[in-house]
Each structure stands twice: as C-alpha cells, then as structure tokens.
Amino acid sequence: MKEEKDCKIVQDLLPNYIEGLANEATKDFFEEHLNKCNECKQIFENMQEDLKVNIIDKDKKAVKYFKKYRNKLRFLWIILLVILVIFVGNTARKMIILSNLANKSKAYTNSENYHYTSYIYLKNKIIIDETWNLGDKRKFVSTHISPEGTTKFLVYGNKTGTDEWGNELYDTNTYNVTENNKTVELNVNKAISGLSQSMTNVLIEDFYNLLLISLRASVTSTTYNGEECYYIQSLPYLLSTYVSKNTGLSISILTQEVENANGGIDRLPISEYTYEFNTVTEDDFIELDISEYNVK
Ligand SMILES: [Zn+2]
Known about the structure:
The protein has 296 residues and is of the alpha+beta class. Among the domains are: 2-60, no CATH class; 112-197 and 283-295, no CATH class. It has five helices and twelve strands. A twelve-stranded mixed sheet has the order 7-8-9-10-11-1-2-3-4-5-6-12. It is rod-shaped. It starts with a helix and ends with a strand. Bound molecules: zinc ion (ZN). Zinc ion (ZN) is lined by residues 6-7, 10, 33, 37, 39-40.
C-alpha cells in the first residue's frame, strides 16, 4: 500500500526532480525509490528522454531561425554591395564621358580660326551673337530682332595685348545700326570675348572638380537636331545642356518649360550654338563704309 502511494508521489513530482527543482531531502527520497521501483524508474527514464528531445527540438528551431536571419542579413549586404557597385560604376562612366568631352573641346577652344554663333530665344526677341576670329583679328556682331525692329552692333578688333586680369584687349571700331541711326566709334580699347570665354562646354579643371560634377550631374546619350550628343543636366555651374559627342562643345542650353499642343510639357531651347572652324578669311574683316555713319 505504502509503495503505491510513494509511486504516485514520485510520478507526480518527476518533472520537478528532472529539472533540478527538488530539495535535497526529496532528491534522496527519489533516488532511493527509483533504485527499488522498476516501474517508476522506467517512467523516469522515458520522461528524461522526452525532455532531451524537447530541448534538442528547441535548439534546432533556434538554429533554423538564426540561419534564416543570417541569410536575410547576407541578402541585404549583397543588395547594398550591388547598389554601391552600380553607383561607383555610373559615376566612373560619367567621369570618363565628361573628361573626354572636355579634352575634345580644348582642341576647338584653342583654335585661332573660328566662327561661332549663338541664338538666344527670348519672349518677342531673338538675339544672334556671332564671333569671327582669325589670329589677332576678332569681329563680333550682335543682331537683335524684335517686333520693334532690328538693331545691329558690330565690333571690329585688332588684338593689342592683355590686361592685368588676362583679358585680351583690342583696338576696336564699333558700329551701331538702328532703324534711323547709324553711328561709329573709332579706335576704342575694348575686350571682346572669344570662344574660350563664352564657351558653355564642360569645364573640367581637375580630378576633384570632375568627380564633383560627375556626382551631381546626369549624363544621357541622345541626339539634338540630328547631332549625336550628351544631355547633361544640373551641373553646379551650368544649366542643362546638350554637348556634341563629336566636338565636346555645347550646342544648346535649356532652361524653360512650356506646355505643348498635347497638354504635355516641352522643354524649349533658350539658346543654341553653331561652330565653324578654319572657314574664316581676311574678307570677313572688311569694315563697313564709314562715310555712311555718324562718327562719335
Ligand atoms: Zn514506484
């Protein structure tokens, strides 16, 4: 009778004993009983086995969770790495394109024989600025066309030197032509900006500058008026511009957006540029007939 009662107590408290929650006296009682009762010993061993399996299961789950977490983390790292590689690659691509354009344009801006024209489109007004250069001779003609009429401003210059800031100085004759007035101002010392000063091409001074521009600008391959070019947007010092792939020179600068007939938004060119090299001759510098002008 007593044995059976002991068995019930032992079996009831076995989990506590296995988990080490029993006190010393209880432990002694358990050990003594388990040594002499096969039934309880069997139950004890089974329960111990179950508990072990349970613990292993828990460990396995933890390992599985950890692996899953680790894989997720690895995936994130790979994505970050891919983004970084794309970013670095894209910046390097822009640096190569921009430095190539700058090198190409240098050959042209150093030219002594050029004729270039800029067309500036304003509301109700078009300004056409043309510059001819042949060695030390330079001619600048600005034509303003508006509903009020057309005016012309012509400067013929012979280079005399450079000022303290490095600007080229010219001995010039300046002609002003309006609808009802023609004046000329002779032998004035003036600076006439040439291709290098007026240039809107990509100016890459050094590696740091090139990197900075490459980080900020977007460079897209496209065509403009049938010419292969790059569309370079939001440079720190320049407006959005189309630069010829062939010459590295700006062929258009954009600033304004307008609504088109379809209700969409078009970006209109505000200025366009054309260039000719080695076409200028002495004939381009034959001055106007002064006798028709009021001398200032
Ligand atoms: Zn027992």
